[in-house]
Amino acid sequence: MRLNTLDRSLAFLLLSTCAGALLPLSAIATSCKTQSQMTAAERDALSSAARTVISEVESGDVQAMRTSALPAVASDFGGIADSVGNLKPLVKGAAVTVDSLYSLDALTESAGTSRTDFYCGTPVVVLNFTDLPPGMYAVTILHATGVSQPQQISLILSETVEHHWMLAGLFSKPLIEAGHEGLWYWVSARKYAERKMNWNAWFYYRTAAYLLDPVEFLSSPNLEKLKHEEDLIRPDTLPGTKPMMLDAHYSVFQVTVIDTTAALGALDLEVHYTPDTAQAAQLHDPPTARKQVTEVMTALLALHPELQEAFHGIWVYADEGPASLFSLELPMDQIVPGIQLPATTSNPVVR
């Protein structure tokens, strides 16, 4: 799960958004209505517009979506078209339900306002936008279930003066990762935190946040609580602005990224390192390359044996710039020093 990539998330071309912490209710904000505060006619009109868009996603009718989009979005529709191409096979035959509706009244907002905040319902859900033009908007969050990879799809809609809803943006995220929902990861993260297994806890908190937060510009008390719990147990030694130096006895590896992935179905760790000149030379020989990346795995597990409990296995990528010189995945029970086992993938991969 690469949280900083775009392949699972957005094609949002008009409204530039930013996530923000909950602001005090005294802050200046425009008005918002949740679905429970809407009239039946308002709910039906908004739900119908959202279902029409999802139907077009399911059929792959990009042209119809472009026609019903705001002009500024329709003129640069490549991102949404790519997202539709990715989503179409995932939602084919899905049961679509409306999870949340928000009607956002920014008609009195001044043009050029840098930030607009909407406070919706009780408990308060906050929607934060930057550079939002005056107008009427809506956020609709739908769930596509009953398929092998359930999705949550969020739409930004803009109302015309004729009271038609036009597409302004589209986001999607999975509802489950490696067979589990976000709440399961949150509960599991707390259990790991109680046992002082902070590496396991932190990665599970991140997975929970990824699954439970449908869009980056939405904040709620529960999501803020989840983020607070995550921050409390964040390990200090994770790679970030500086690489993590991993000592494997005979070599020191510069680990640049540790993340999670469910590319093979189960939840794996995904580890990226930058080999030095000597290490890079060894990667041209497959048996030596396997030995090297297995040393990365065993060294990481020697530091944090708890990882064996929380993850199916480990992916390791030896990166040189944007390309991977070598990659290997092994289940935890096959990561044994000195034993070279067949890899799931060991061919060079361009990322």
Characterise the protein shown here.
This protein is α+β, with helices and mostly antiparallel strands and 351 residues long. Helix content is 32%, strand content 31%. The protein folds into 3 domains: 10-174, Nuclear Transport Factor 2, Chain: A (Roll); 180-232, no CATH class; 244-350, Diaminopimelate Epimerase, Chain A, domain 1 (Roll), CATH 3.10.310. It contains 10 helices and 18 strands. Strand 13 and strand 14 (252-261) form a beta hairpin. Helix 5 runs antiparallel to helix 6 (198-212) and helix 6 (198-212) packs antiparallel against helix 7. Mean pLDDT is 88; it is low at 2-29 and 338-351.
Short description:
The chain is of the alpha+beta class. The chain has helices at 40-59, 62-67, 71-74, 78-91, 182-194, 198-212, 221-232, 277-282, 286-303, 307-310, and strands at 10-11, 16-17, 31-34, 95-106, 115-120, 125-130, 135-145, 151-159, 165-174, 176-177, 180-181, 218-219, 244-247, 252-261, 268-274, 313-320, 323-331, 349-350. The protein starts with 9 loop residues before the first strand and ends with a strand.
Q: What is the level 1 CATH name of the largest domain?
A: Alpha Beta
Mean pLDDT: 88
By DSSP (H or I, 4+ residues per run), the number of helices equals: 10
The tally of structural domains comes to 3
Q: Compute the CA-based radius of gyration.
A: 23 Å
Largest sheet: 6 strands, antiparallel
User: Structural class of the secondary structure composition?
Assistant: alpha+beta
CATH architecture of the largest domain: Roll
CATH-derived topology of the largest domain:
Nuclear Transport Factor 2, Chain: A
Give, in spatial order, the strands making up the sheet with the most strands. Answer: 1-9-8-7-4-3
Shape descriptor reads elongated
Question: What string, H for helix and E for strand, traces the elements in order?
Answer: EEEHHHHEEEEEEEEHHEHEEEHHHEEE
Q: Which stretches are poorly predicted, pLDDT < 50 over at least 5 residues?
A: 2-29, 338-351
Beta-strand portion reads 25-35%
Number-wise, the strands total 18
Helix content: 25-40%
